[in-house]
Design goal:
This protein has 267 residues and is α/β, with parallel strands linked by helices. Helix content is 46%, strand content 12%. Helix 5 crosses helix 11. The chain starts with a helix and ends in a 13-residue tail after the last helix.
Length: 267
């Protein structure tokens, strides 16, 4: 990423905090354009398309009550301490009566088997009809269908893109991380809160408190939409002028150094 960024004449930033970071790295302000995030275009397109099979037909129990959808896959959360806190924290949430739908991504499935949690989770599902563990949903349209339904209380995720999508869809987001590369969803949109997997008790306690606080859930669901509209169109409109620029301006040229030395002005 650092090499490609250095070789780019034009930068498209999703939000202003990204623009500020690029400026601090020394890039010219005229080369940076804050346009929004193309996730909004993808969601707008997918919301017009119906899934081949309704998620509520695939998993009828999801049509009753208010569920927490869980998806965990980041490698940092798959190391022993964090993964134990997350899985055992989920067990505690279920035992407190919280409806939980845990979706197994590939990395999640392997970690569950590697750490020996498979039988425990299967038994938890057998003993509690408010706990569902499912394989990866077949269509992304099913994810949107569920998240935009009245049966989605919130999502618990460690995915960067899900933090963006939750903001656009108006779904409360709880992020199982110690920090986030989408800080704008926390500090500007207020649609996301961090729930670091310090321990099972800490993790489950924080999630349970958030889900039981109706005012907090409402605040998260009403968070400011920060990723714009028609973002791809904005980018495409700027491309012709960007493509007319020289391929790579040297740093000394941007800083007006070595005037008169044009032999190495551009690659």
């Amino acid at each position: 990423p650092y090499v490609s960024a250095a070789g780019c004449h034009t930068h498209f930033a999703p939000v202003d905090i990204n623009r500020q970071h690029i400026l601090r790295e020394g890039y010219a302000k005229e080369s940076i354009h804050t346009v929004g995030n193309t996730v909004v275009d993808a969601l707008a397109l997918k919301r017009k398309m119906h899934a081949g099979q309704s998620i509520f037909d695939a998993y009828p129990s999801l049509e009753e009550g208010s569920w927490l959808r869980v998806d965990i896959h980041r490698r940092g959360n798959l190391q022993p301490g964090r993964f134990r806190a997350i899985i055992e924290g989920i067990e505690q949430l279920v035992k407190k009566g919280q409806q939980v739908c845990m979706v197994e991504l590939t990395a999640t499935r392997r970690a569950i088997d590697f750490y020996g949690y498979r039988k425990r989770l299967q038994q938890l599902a057998e003993e509690n009809d408010h706990f569902l563990i499912s394989p990866l949903w077949k269509e992304y349209g099913q994810v949107i269908e569920f998240l935009t339904s009245k049966h989605a209380r919130a999502i618990l995720t460690d995915s960067g893109s899900m933090q963006e999508e939750a903001n656009e869809l108006g779904v409360p987001c709880l992020t199982a991380r110690f920090n986030t590369d989408r800080p704008e969803t926390v500090m500007e949109a207020h649609s996301n809160i961090l729930v670091p997997p310090v321990s099972a008790t800490f993790f489950s306690g924080l999630v349970y408190h958030a889900l039981r606080d109706d005012s907090l859930v409402k605040q998260l669901s009403k968070g400011k939409h920060i990723y714009g509209r028609h973002v791809a169109e904005k980018i495409v409109k700027r491309l012709p002028s960007a493509l007319q620029q020289p391929s790579y301006p040297w740093a000394h040229h941007r800083l007006n150094l070595l005037k008169g030395d044009e032999s190495f002005e551009y690659l």
